[in-house]
């Protein structure tokens, strides 16, 4: 949908459509490549237009990025946003997400991969320092076990004998919003100490 209406594109050669970050192509083709423009849109999404239609993406992480849904942010530099997971494995468990809506790592444009993981590396060091961790677990799911279809990386502080075994573990909750705010502040301070952004 564009402006509340579904935009239907005629079958055509490959082209680029200039779409807002909250739009996606709904189509039968899996070939996303190539240059035209949809009126009233803003950031590029590439795909083969053979009978494609567009719909607005309803994404929790986009809502957090846009400030519509509250979250305990610890980092935002314009390309990547990081915030506390609301169901952490351990306090300090972060989610790092690209601002641009992409569903999986394989959808992340190649020029964005290096900068994205540079931030993940910085955030990993900050979480380990802030939480006094022995190490960390850094992982991303692509579709399977991906609860929000917006690419994200989990950064989890770890301690020896912390009880995590394999990929099956219980989730916990912060005792209250004040505890989550205190943990977020510790991680924000460590991000700044690592030379990170806001």
Automatic annotation (TrEMBL):
Position of the signal peptide: none
Gene Ontology terms: biological process: nucleotide metabolic process
Ranges where the HIT domain occurs: 60-165
InterPro entries membership: Histidine_triad_CS, Histidine_triad_HIT, HIT-like, HIT-like_sf
Residue numbers covered by motif Histidine triad motif: 150-154
Active site positions: 152
Recorded GO MF terms: catalytic activity
Identification of the protein by name: HIT family protein
Organism: Streptomyces radicis
